[in-house]
Design goal:
Helix content: 25-40%
Structural class: alpha/beta
Distance between the termini: 31 Å
Strand order of the largest sheet: 14-13-12-11-7-10-9-8-15
Number of helices: 9
Radius of gyration: 21 Å
Shape: globular
Oligomer: single chain
Length: 341
C-alpha cells in the first residue's frame, strides 16, 4: 500500500487525539476534514497546517478526494450514518467508541461491514495499557488457576458539562463501555447474560443514571461484577478501575495505578485452615505505544497486514452487547440474556 488517504469526520476536541497521530505518520495524508460546522474544520486545518479540503458532506469528500480511510470522531448518535456511508463508499473506518448509540444501530453497522467486506475498528484505547495487558496475560497463563470471578470498581466524580450531562445512561454507555471491554480482554471470555441496576443517587449533576451495579455471566462459566459511579465525590478510583480477579489457585489485583500483582497458593502437604501464598509481580513487556496512540497504531497495522484489527466491529459488537444488555436489564429490572455474535 502506497499510503492512506484519510478523511476525518468530526472536528471537535477529540479530533486532536487522532490528528496528532495521523499527521505524524509518513504513510498517511489527511485529504479532507468534514464537519457540520465548516469553521471547526477550518480551525483544525490551520492548527495542523493541512492542505486538505473542508467539507460538510462525507460522501462528497470521499468521491472528490479519493478517500480510502475515514476517521469517525463524531458524537455517538452520528456513528451509524457516518460509518455505514463510509463502508458503502468502499472505505475502511477507524472510529471513536461507542460503536453506536443503540444495539440496533450497532447491528446494522456490523451487517454493513460484513456485507461490504470493509473493516471498521473501534477506539477501545484502554485495552492498550501495558498494565492491563499484563494482567490479561497473567490470567491467560493460568498463574492463578482457572478463572472464577472478576470484579471492577469505578468511582469518580466527573464534572464534564456538555452532552454527557444530558445522556440517559452516561456511565454505562460512555464510560463503562471501556471497563466491560477490559473485562473481555482480562477474562478472555464473552458475556452471555447480565443483571444490572442503574440509578442516579442524591447530589448527581447528571440528567440520566450515573451509577450502576452489574453482574455478568461469562461464556467460560465465570462471573464479572461491575460497580461504578460518575458522580461519586471523594476517594476516587483510577480511571482504569480497581480490579480483583479470582482463580482456583490464587488472586490477582490491580489498583489501576501501579503494576498488577498476584498471590498463588504455596504447595503444601499439610492441611491448613488457610493457605500460605507466594506473592508475584509479573514482568511487564513492551506492548508498544499506549492508550489512544496504541489503538490507532493497531488499526493502521491491521490494514497494512491485511487483517482485522483487535477492536474490529466483528469483535467489538460483543462489548456493545454487554453495554446495551445492561441498559435493557436495568429498564426491565430483570436478568437479560445477550445475543451471540
Amino acid at each position: 500500500m502506497a499510503g492512506f488517504k484519510v478523511a476525518l469526520v468530526g472536528c471537535g476536541g477529540m479530533s486532536n487525539a487522532w490528528l496528532s497521530n495521523v499527521t505524524k505518520r509518513e504513510d498517511c495524508e489527511v485529504v479532507a476534514l468534514v464537519d457540520i460546522l465548516p469553521e471547526s474544520a477550518e480551525r483544525q486545518k490551520a492548527k495542523y497546517g493541512l492542505g486538505c479540503g473542508v467539507y460538510t458532506d462525507l460522501r462528497k469528500a470521499i468521491e472528490e478526494r479519493a478517500v480510502d480511510t475515514v476517521l469517525d470522531v463524531t458524537i455517538p448518535d452520528s456513528h451509524r450514518e457516518v460509518v455505514t456511508t463510509a463502508l458503502r463508499c468502499g472505505c475502511r473506518v477507524f472510529g471513536e467508541k461507542p460503536m453506536a448509540s443503540s444495539m440496533a444501530a450497532a447491528e446494522e453497522i456490523h451487517a454493513v461491514a460484513r456485507e461490504t467486506g470493509n473493516h471498521y475498528a473501534v477506539m477501545q484505547n484502554r485495552r492498550f495499557d501495558r498494565r492491563i495487558r499484563t494482567l490479561a496475560q497473567t490470567v491467560a497463563s493460568k498463574a492463578i488457576g482457572d478463572l472464577g470471578f472478576a470484579s471492577a470498581d469505578f468511582f469518580i466524580g466527573a464534572h464534564f458539562g456538555g452532552f454527557r450531562d444530558m445522556m440517559d445512561n452516561p456511565l454505562v454507555l460512555d464510560m463503562a463501555v471501556h471497563t466491560f471491554d477490559q473485562a473481555r480482554l482480562i477474562t478472555g471470555a464473552d458475556a452471555v447474560a447480565v443483571y444490572c441496576h442503574e440509578f442516579n443517587p442524591p447530589g448527581s449533576w447528571y440528567k440520566g443514571n450515573a451509577s450502576a451495579v452489574c453482574v455478568f455471566e461469562m461464556s467460560d462459566g465465570s462471573v464479572f461484577d461491575y460497580r461504578g459511579s460518575w458522580c461519586s465525590e471523594g476517594f476516587f478510583t483510577s480511571w482504569e478501575s480497581q480490579w480483583r480477579v479470582v482463580g482456583s489457585e490464587g488472586t490477582a489485583i490491580w489498583d489501576g495505578h501501579g503494576a498488577p500483582v498476584y498471590e498463588r497458593v504455596r504447595p503444601s502437604a499439610e492441611a491448613r485452615f488457610s493457605n500460605e501464598f507466594d506473592k508475584v509481580t509479573p514482568e511487564m513487556r513492551d506492548w508498544g505505544r499506549q492508550m489512544h496512540d496504541g489503538c490507532i497504531d493497531e488499526m493502521f497495522a491491521s490494514a497494512l497486514e491485511g487483517r482485522r484489527a483487535e477492536t474490529d466491529c466483528t469483535d467489538n459488537i460483543r462489548t456493545m452487547a454487554m453495554v446495551f444488555g445492561a441498559i435493557e436489564s436495568a429498564r426491565l429490572k430483570r436478568r437479560v440474556e445477550l445475543g451471540r455474535y
